[in-house]
Amino acid sequence: MSDRKEFRDLATPEAAREAIDSLDLSPEPETVPLEEARGRVLAERVDAAVDVPGFDRASMDGYAVRAEDTFGADEADPAELDLAGAVHAGAAPQVTVAPGACAEISTGAVMPEGADAVVMVERTDEIGGGPDAGSDPDRIAIRTAVAPGDHVMSAGADIAAGARALGPGTRLTPREIGLLSALGVDEVPVEGRPRVGIVSTGDELVRPGEALDPSRGEIYDVNSTTIAAGVEEAGGEPVLYPHAGDDYEEMERLLRRAADECDLVLSSGSTSASAVDVIYRVIEERGELLLHGVAVKPGKPMLVGCLDRGGSEAASGGDADARTGESAYVGLPGYPVSALTIFRTFVAPAVREAAGRAEPATATVEGRMAVGERYGEGRTRLMPVGLLDLNDGDLPLVYPVDKGSGATTSLVEADGVVTVEPDTEYLDEGERVSVQLFSPDVRPPSLLGVGEDDPALNRLLDRLENPRYLPVGSREGLRRLRDGVPDAVVIAGPTDREVESIDLGGWTRDWGLVVPAGNPADVTGLDAVVDRDLRFVNRPTDSGLRRSLDDALDRLAAERSTSRAELTEGIAGYDLTVRAFESPARRVIAGDADVGVGLRETAKRLDCGFVSLGEQSVVVRAAPERADRDAVRELAAALDDPADLLEGLAGYSRNSRNDP
Amino acid sequence: MSDRKEFRDLATPEAAREAIDSLDLSPEPETVPLEEARGRVLAERVDAAVDVPGFDRASMDGYAVRAEDTFGADEADPAELDLAGAVHAGAAPQVTVAPGACAEISTGAVMPEGADAVVMVERTDEIGGGPDAGSDPDRIAIRTAVAPGDHVMSAGADIAAGARALGPGTRLTPREIGLLSALGVDEVPVEGRPRVGIVSTGDELVRPGEALDPSRGEIYDVNSTTIAAGVEEAGGEPVLYPHAGDDYEEMERLLRRAADECDLVLSSGSTSASAVDVIYRVIEERGELLLHGVAVKPGKPMLVGCLDRGGSEAASGGDADARTGESAYVGLPGYPVSALTIFRTFVAPAVREAAGRAEPATATVEGRMAVGERYGEGRTRLMPVGLLDLNDGDLPLVYPVDKGSGATTSLVEADGVVTVEPDTEYLDEGERVSVQLFSPDVRPPSLLGVGEDDPALNRLLDRLENPRYLPVGSREGLRRLRDGVPDAVVIAGPTDREVESIDLGGWTRDWGLVVPAGNPADVTGLDAVVDRDLRFVNRPTDSGLRRSLDDALDRLAAERSTSRAELTEGIAGYDLTVRAFESPARRVIAGDADVGVGLRETAKRLDCGFVSLGEQSVVVRAAPERADRDAVRELAAALDDPADLLEGLAGYSRNSRNDP
Q1: Which of B67, B235, B292, B333 shows the greatest Cβ crowding within 10 Å of its Cβ?
Q2: How many other CB atoms are found less than 10 A from the CB of residue A425?
Q3: Residue ranges of the MoaB/Mog domain (chains A, B) (predicted)?
Q4: Do A528 and A617 share a domain, yes or no?
Q5: Are A485 and A499 spatial neighbours (Cβ–Cβ below 8 Å)?
Q6: pLDDT tens-digit profile of A585-637?
Q7: Does the ipTM surpass 0.95?
Q8: Closest Cα partner for A59 from A125, A122, A143, A120?
């Protein structure tokens, strides 16, 4: 076992924040075309270079007049003026308004010389001419008096040349784009987007889309893409570097290249001590390590430092793009939820700051703890939590999600993190907490369901607006419903837990034994599994499939006047449980087992053989106090006509509860 | 005057919404690479195609063991196992763990055959070997018992093949990108972005960046870029079509081309009746008009309909991209604030819906009316309002912004609109209202200032975080401060209004007469303006510059034993007032005036001549009840050392208040 660096003297989270703040990630400002400026941040003040409007402008359709010619005019005694001509928008006036005259004018047109007000067309009449006379009118009756400037927008009245239009730091949304357009600006000085290089280390990582060899322990690289998306969201420009693999010279070369090309370099995914050693060495040789280890869970192995530039071939080769000085460096933990949590908490604010962006208002949500939570490790905890907004006027419910840091599914089963201070030992049920969302765009679910996994259920969930479903099995689902967090539970087969709940409907599914295509071992029923030397694969005890299997074994044991335990002892693989409804079938297909517990539907879909052991009801039940929620009603409505939910699913039928 | 279509039988806003909802803007779903998927919306469910992890995986560094070999082991009585080899992450195990043996294993590595649990390294000791022995250890002492599965993540335990990973309609944020990566997905089925064609009509419109001829009444096209940015923000893909100008055949051709190429066509900016006639004709010939005129202010002249496809040359020419069926059509009002308001209220929700996106949580903000507002026109009003969050625990203040619909500056002086129902005649001060922001990214200001405009003030504002400043003049500024909405006022010169306020600091500026470079008319003082036949240009009565000018005229009148009115009667242009501090100078430069009131700084910057008439103080004052706000303290702090505020500004100095 190689030597491992120990993390002693952990820094406080505040010190980590200060260390990152002390690094300079700021890119140079740049100029972008107006049509690409949305979402960017103004780097400097923009003053109006022109008057808007650029001329005295009619703001109504009507007649341009000298106001004094209308003084005293009213409905009873209109002023009559000679019609001297017309002015239209987008054309230079070809007419001058002399005393006693007027000119037809359209909204937006230039006020003709001599005129100082507009009378709206509704307060005028044509005299002479017109369709009947077969000619244009030559005089206009003005039935109202106007003052100089009436219905005229004078040049610069909207914004005048020299006036401050937009200040530095302004985020450019459609309306600012509009004002810049009005000023004729088509190139905008904006804050640069910090370039953030992402170097991932670890021999086992494979880029999504490439072939994976699980027998070599390969997994897809989650952190690079997740963090790249986070960088982009914070206003940075992510640059993914190719995998360094376990070639440490290559890793060093990559780190230096990334430092030369970027404002900030992030590495993550290194579970290998030797990779960490390389990073140390590079930083120690050409850079500075500011911080090593932070008293925060997760994220203890975080590194903060900087890397001198000029170390890469690109730079020494005279690449014009190469920068000087130093690049900031942060090493993130390897597990995806930890990496995203540390990125969101410590790195994203620095990227946003460098890009000139404010923290989005939606990035933090207030909530109340749905359950109590004990903690006492003496360091700050960034606790992953899920949110459920009951829309009952109270704060959303917050519940801890703890699947172990290695689970990528925590990414979508949690919505963000709650910071638990080191001296907090217990969070009470109902206590108010702030949740830092994983992204300002995270939309917490409107419905939380738990329980059995099932293919018809997957379709049902597709019909709902933003549900979250945790496939924890029927038994665990009932336990969670009883504990009060979820809205609904899905139960397959018989249950022994009594939890008060309201039946919303369901269906029936054919379950039994999945065998290879053609049933080569000629399995005919449970006897074969018990009596013959077949490799079996099971579901966990929380699963309804397992419960039905055990009930069937109980019946067989009773027939044979023995116990279930006696029977199962002889089943090779009875204790080998796999995660989801298709998993046993897939083990059978892979040749790792001869028989698995499963569904007729799965066997058909995956082209396996199937031996039915019976039908099992799947029911959806709601927590009584949640039955009136819109989201639960929507669930009930989606269940009301389950026909096409079940269409084409082998062995599925409406259960008796739903039949008329 | 041409015939104008009258808007009779206006539709209700609900009917307008229904008409737009009845149109089909939905594009086909598409597939995008994972790295471009952020912000998009899943078009269909994604099930896991592989187990994650794809193998039984060590979740700690330590030793892979057969759990039963550790039963009974503890600190006092460790189990000793033969070390059979090592397994590292990213490598296939080359070792089998037989009874009584173990294998070194790294986090993330594949569990070797035979082993079913991991003992963490901290609970083990090496026996024999090591640095001292000069060889590898051959046995390991295990100081704890483990159960099967301990520190092992079994294949599929995170998510199993066949399980539902993400549902349709899921917005892809970094965490979803992470889960998709874990599943090896590199191409993602997402909802398409509706293509929205923007056709702008109006002879007077010029694209930003092009040359403008104000004498022809040309203005920059604000709506096309504003609406394009709004479309993009709502998840659509904007397509700007070239200006049709007043060539109506061209306009018809463009509308048809846009219909062929887009899911929705928007037109705006048409203040010309004949342009509206062309749109009618095109819709009537090849399409359907659903709605014409809506009882809403602004936005009455809104049109909703659809345009048959296949009318453009591109389509008849067999363009592969041409679509069939029909395109939706909405005609927006011409004024920028009206166009953005109608877009935001009626069109953006439809674009979002077609793109599969939810309304962002930040798009609506609750507030309380800062002042009462009367309204009684019997139709829905979408009232532009500004927001000011006092951060006092109460809702943000909401105040109406009504500069007239033609003003583009309303775009940035208002933050959104409040919907006032037709039967609401009065909104009380303090009444709670919902503000629909112009964009979810709109950040209401943290400070609201009003008053005089001034170049040093512009610099001061640049130092503040997100201020809003309304240059309404000193006198109007004081009136507004008294009415209780703004935080601070900036006053230049003497004032006659008494408003309780707190002095925060200020400076002094040299003011006088701006004349052409070289002072060709040899103006030496105010006498020249009064006595000679010079064309003058003034500032409005609310301006501090005007007030100082009038005071100087009063003094001159007293010297001459006459009245100011008597003197000003002889000044050609005394009543010609222009908007901003630079505006008179710019009129002088343009040759439209011989003398203007203004600042030495402006004269110097614009290379004009200048005749000083005196010094004028500029003071910044806060509303007493706002003095403790963070934003006001920030303002006071920025004023505390005004030295470099004034650096390089001609005629500027610290005023006596600030001198020690």
Answers
A1: B333
A2: 12
A3: 197-353
A4: yes
A5: no
A6: 999 999 999 999 999 999 999 999 999 999 999 999 999 999 999 999 999 99
A7: no
A8: A120
Please state, as a whole number, how many other Cβ atoms lie within 10 Å of the Cβ of residue B316. 12
Per-residue pLDDT at B90 exceeds 90: no
Beta-carbon separation of B59 and A404 below 8 A = yes
Residues of chain B neighbouring A61 (CB-CB closer than 8 A): 1, 4
What is the pLDDT averaged over residues B525-539?
A: 96
Chain B contacts of A90, Cβ < 8 Å?
202-205, 216-218, 246
The model's pTM: 0.88
Say if the Cβ atoms of A220 and B45 lie within 8 Å: no
Phi and psi at residue A331, to the nearest 5°: -100, 125
Rounded to whole angstroms, the Cα distance separating B446 from B456 reads: 20
CATH number of the domain bearing residue A347:
3.40.980.10
Range with the poorest average pLDDT among A251-260, A455-464, A649-658, B77-86? A649-658
Shortest CB distance from B411 goes to which of A175, A224, A225?
A175
Of B380, B355, B503, B333, which is closest to residue B42 (Cα–Cα)?
B355
Tell me what pLDDT residue B3 has.
39
| B463-488 pLDDT, tens digit each | 999 999 999 999 999 999 999 999 99
CB B583 within 8 A of CB B546: no
Map residue B456 onto helix, strand or coil. Answer: helix
| Same domain flag for B369 and B514 | no
B202 φ/ψ angles, rounded to the nearest 5 degrees:
125, 120
Name the residue facing A579 among B157, B227, B411 (closest C-beta): B157
- What are the C-alpha distances in Å from B470 to residues A216, A414, B464, B488, B630? 66, 44, 15, 11, 20
Contact residues on chain B for A272, CB-CB shorter than 8 A: 88-89, 106
CB A92, CB B215: distance < 8 Å:
yes
Give the type of residue at A570: G
Look at residues B416, B437, B458 and tell me which one is the last residue of a structural domain. B437
Q: How many domains does chain B contain in total?
A: 5
**Is the CB of B466 less than 8 angstroms away from the CB of A169?**
yes
Per-residue burial over B541-551, b if 16 or more Cβ lie within 10 Å, else e, is: ebbbbbbbbbb
Instruction: List the one residue out of B234, B301, B307 whose CA is nearest residue B264.
Output: B307
Contact B340 A174 (CB under 8 A): yes
Q: Both tokens of residue B335?
A: 């004024």
The CATH number that applies at residue B518 is 3.40.190.290
The minimal CB distance from B462 to the residues A168, A228, A361 is found for: A168
**A581 and A505, same structural domain?**
yes
Q: How far is CA B575 from CA A148, B524, B535, in A?
A: 10, 22, 11
Residues of chain A contacting B104 with CB distance shorter than 8 Å:
1
What type of residue is A518?
G
- Chain B neighbors of A602, CB-CB under 8 A: 162
Q: Chain-wide mean pLDDT for chain B?
A: 90
Final residue belonging to a domain, choices B310, B333, B355? B355
In angstroms, rounded to a whole number, what is the distance separating the alpha carbons of residues B475 and B541?
8
Range of the domain at A87: 57-153
Residues B259 and B387 in one domain: no
Question: How many Cβ atoms from other residues are within 10 Å of residue A224's Cβ?
Answer: 27
Q: Please list, in sequence order, all residues whose beta carbon lies within 8 angstroms of the beta carbon of residue A473, skipping any fewer than 6 positions away.
A: A451, A452, A453, A540, A541, A542, A543, A544
pLDDT for A657 equals: 47
Say if residue B600 is in the same domain as residue B466. yes
If asked whether residues A200 and A64 sit together in one domain, one would say no
**Closest Cα in chain B to A108:** B217
Provide the terminal-to-terminal Cα distance of chain B, rounded to the nearest Å: 68
Q: Are A111 and A57 in contact (CB under 8 A)?
A: yes
Same domain? A213 vs A231 = yes
Least trusted range by pLDDT, from A122-136, A177-191, A196-210, B274-288:
A122-136
B466 within domain boundaries: yes
